[in-house]
UniProtKB/TrEMBL annotation:
Identification of the protein by name: DNA-binding transcriptional regulator, MocR family, contains an aminotransferase domain
Organism: Modicisalibacter muralis
Domain HTH gntR-type per the UniProt entry, residue ranges: 13-81
Pfam family, one: Aminotran_1_2
Keyword flag DNA-binding: yes
Length: 468
């Protein structure tokens, strides 16, 4: 077939990446639909006046991004799965790396044998003490009342989230809470603003729910208030989704002054705020959520997943007063109610102080790993918080992010580029995200960081050098 990608091509960066991004934009705008067969490598190369090798690399990159499928003997086809913005490690059913590989690619808290022991002990305690409601409940959609009451008090006292028990819902993790909040106030086709780099889950959610996600400029404190004000005037968004604390992937965290400025913009424009505060407990107490500054127009989402154990998918959604009856039907439609047993364990840990204890331990473990990363990456530019899950690493001029990721994989090391987190089809930053929690053994983490530092100090192998 004949396709015209020229309206979507950018002059920035290597040509193969520009072609891959053009395919992504054509798909996003509906010009290329699932199941469409693409031109042969030679046909597209001739139409774009590039080499066949460049098109081959572009198709390979598009397949890596989940945009296309290459079928032996049949050609290359637009992927029928709606997962083109997902990270590769989330799209496969089994780990793509051998057990010997070192994983710095996935956001994961440090989970030691101690964590497994605490979890088993809690389950044993619940076996003796849990109320029959935990296994028999099927009607209290917002969650069991004793679980909501405990969570409401904790959210107010520990995180500073306004509201009372009638404003809280229990949900199956923060991702579920984020979907419920957006679905409550955003309709198909509405514009939603977020940071220019944001969690890939929100990008995937925009495709699932059909809203238009627009990125706003960020700096080392997150979203820039002046840019947010300009975007509100230009796009008239229905909502703004923000992560003020440890933005994924950059780690940017708003100061109190920045939070005040952002809240002022949102109040002036009267726009719904959906605050993703999933990393709140990775920071010491003191930062107050954006939601506290504009409670009548804010949804607040958090969970225990990043600071206790990854399998404890206990999410908490706080809604503005009067919005609960709008959100409950979405909760009922997506999961009926959050899993009571999970929240009974969370309730136990909130009651006996284990959540705050594990959060403090997680901050200590991550601080140790961040100091290790700083030593290994000395001489290279990066940004990170003392207790962040990630390091946001700038690359030397000799490397491009996709090349480094490919070479690192060949060396047995998994890292993540900025591509999964990009809202707009703009030139990606020359950075990679390093996640420090997935490797339980800190010695393996040290080896992985040492290997990465060695790669950064070398030139890319000839086979990886850009073809224009």
């Amino acid at each position: 077939m004949t396709i015209d990608l020229t309206p979507y091509l950018s002059e920035h960066g290597p040509k193969y990446l520009a072609i891959a991004r053009a395919l992504s934009e054509a798909i996003r705008q509906g010009e290329l639909t699932p199941g469409t067969r693409l031109p042969t490598h030679r046909q597209l190369a001739e139409s774009l006046s590039v080499s066949v090798q460049t098109v081959s690399r572009a198709y390979a990159q598009a397949e890596k991004m989940g945009l296309v499928q290459a079928r032996v003997g049949s050609g290359t086809w637009i992927n029928s799965l709606d997962d083109s913005r997902e990270s590769e490690y989330l799209r496969v059913s089994e780990p793509r790396f051998e057990a010997a590989s070192i994983d710095l690619s996935i956001a994961h808290p440090v989970c030691l044998p101690m964590h497994h022991l605490r979890f088993r002990e809690a389950l044993a305690e619940l076996a003796d003490q849990a109320s029959p409601d935990v296994i028999a409940a099927c009607r209290p959609i917002a969650g069991l009342i004793h679980q909501r009451e405990r969570a409401s008090a904790w959210l107010h006292e520990r995180l500073g989230v306004p509201g009372d028990v009638d404003d809280r819902l229990l949900c199956n993790g923060a991702a579920h809470g984020l979907m419920l909040a957006i679905a409550t106030v955003v309709q198909h086709g509405d514009v939603v603003l977020t940071e220019a780099l944001t969690d890939h889950g929100l990008i995937a959610l925009s495709r699932t729910l059909g809203f238009q996600l627009r990125g706003v400029a960020i700096d080392d404190e997150g979203i820039v208030p002046e840019a947010l004000d300009a975007a509100c005037r230009r796009f008239q968004p229905r909502a703004v989704c923000l992560t003020p604390t440890q933005l994924n992937p950059t780690g940017a965290t708003m100061s109190q002054a920045r939070r005040d400025a952002v809240a002022e913009v949102l109040i002036r424009h009267g726009i719904w705020l959906i605050e993703d505060d999933v990393h709140a407990l990775l920071e010491p107490p003191g930062l107050t959520p954006l939601t506290a500054r504009l409670p009548r127009q804010s949804f607040h989402v958090t969970s225990l997943t990043k600071v206790t154990v990854p399998g404890l998918r206990a999410g908490y959604l706080s809604v503005p007063r009067g919005q609960l009856h709008h959100t409950l039907p979405r909760l009922r439609a997506t999961s009926w109610m959050a899993t009571p047993l999970i929240f009974e364990l969370a309730d136990l840990w909130l009651a006996n102080g284990t959540v705050d204890e594990l959060a403090g331990e997680q901050r200590r473990l991550l601080d140790e790993r961040q100091r290790l990363a700083a030593r290994r990456l000395r001489g290279h530019e990066f940004s990170a918080r003392p207790s962040s899950l990630h390091v946001w690493l700038s690359l030397p001029p000799t490397w491009r992010a996709e090349e480094l990721q490919q070479q690192a994989e060949q060396e047995g090391l998994a890292i993540t580029t900025a591509q999964p987190f990009m809202v707009e089809q703009t030139p990606p930053p020359r950075r990679v995200r390093l996640s420090l929690g997935a490797e339980t053994d800190i010695e393996r983490l040290d080896r992985g960081l040492e290997l990465l530092a060695q790669l950064l100090d070398e030139a890319p192998p000839p086979m990886l050098q850009i073809v224009y």
